[in-house]
UniProtKB/TrEMBL annotation:
Name under which the protein is recorded: Ferritin-like domain-containing protein
Disordered: region residues: 249-269
Any Pfam family hit: Ferritin_2
Top-rank lineage group of the source organism: Bacteria
């Protein structure tokens, strides 16, 4: 049974029950973390103190490389039926294997074509960042892409109220599940690159980071548009995207930095929500700690969990206490 206080609070929250009220959702999770996660927070503060030094450009690029390892392996397995090539996994730090995953059967030929393009893009990102870092590039850490009731995907889906206790979420079962799993990653990737941009000092690296950010935004738009099309035929798909968005917002502990794909208006005024933007029309940002809150599936400060069971490699590896 899942006893993590964060996940228990999410399942008991109004959002998980299908009742509106995100403020109450935050209060419920915050209270559970304060009461049930005290030891984690104490240990997390010690971890955070060890990560107070200003990150170097190499630290920031390696942090991004961890995320690219996660995305690239997910797409490579789901779309091509294979993991990232061995020559793109080596480096400094603790190397790890990828657990789980299998190829998705695409019945929508157009979606399959777009998924293959995204897969090749993500592989190129891994190769590019490794080339920029040279001998400083980190190795691929252990990554959980499995589908058991205790897998990272299932914990994330359960926290969003998509599945019940003891059930599994299988992102490889069908196209809709694949899209929701990819949606979980891509929106976070966009906010991660935007949030990390101010940490870079080398103009060449800033330019490269901006280029990857743009591509990740293209990917996010493709996936969100695909979810929109499926949601127009099956409105419950919009509900699932909102549930994932709310779960991400709860984990990172910040003001609303996320949006699902639900359109607004009706009839001739119906407007899609392909680009999740703030009131100024800008993409959202997340700190490295907030990104790791989602990757580790926790609101506490820790150095491992969720999709990275042993943590990420590199010097930026601690989630925020939110």
């Amino acid at each position: 049974m899942d006893t993590d206080p964060d996940m228990m609070a999410l399942r008991r929250s109004p959002e998980a029950e299908g009742v509106p009220g995100r403020r109450n959702f935050f209060r419920a999770l915050g209270l559970a973390t304060a009461l049930g996660g005290g030891l984690s927070l104490i240990g997390g503060n010690q971890l955070a103190e060890a990560q107070t030094a200003a990150p170097t450009d190499a630290d920031v690029l390696n942090f991004a490389l961890n995320l690219e390892y996660l995305e690239s392996n997910f797409y490579s397995i789901a779309v091509l039926g294979e993991q990232l090539p061995a020559e793109l996994r080596t480096g400094t730090g603790t190397p790890g294997a990828v657990s789980g995953g299998r190829q998705v059967t695409f019945t929508d030929a157009v979606l399959g074509q777009m998924a293959r393009e995204i897969t090749l893009n993500e592989r190129t990102h891994v190769a590019f960042l490794r080339n920029q870092l040279g001998t400083a590039a980190i190795a691929q850490p252990a990554i959980d892409l499995s589908v058991s009731p205790t897998s990272a995907f299932s914990l994330a889906a359960r926290s969003a109220g998509l599945i019940g206790e003891g059930e599994s979420f299988d992102p490889y079962l069908n196209e809709e599940n694949f899209l929701l799993a990819a949606f979980l990653f891509e929106d976070v990737g966009v906010t991660a690159y935007k949030g990390a941009a101010p940490l870079l000092t080398n103009k060449t690296f800033i330019d490269a980071s901006a280029g990857i950010l743009a591509v990740e935004a293209y990917h996010s738009a493709i996936l969100r548009a695909s979810i929109h099309m499926k949601g127009m035929a099956t409105p419950a798909v919009f509900d699932r995207s909102e549930a994932i968005s709310n779960a991400r917002d709860t984990l990172d502990g910040a003001p609303d930095l996320d949006q699902g794909v639900r359109p607004s208006g009706s009839g001739d005024t119906l407007t899609s929500n392909i680009a999740p933007l703030d009131a100024n029309g800008l993409a959202f940002s997340r700190t490295t700690g907030q990104v790791l809150n989602i990757a580790y599936l926790t609101r506490t400060s820790t150095d491992r969990g969720g999709f990275f069971p042993n943590g990420v490699n590199g010097n930026i590896r601690v989630s925020a206490a939110s």
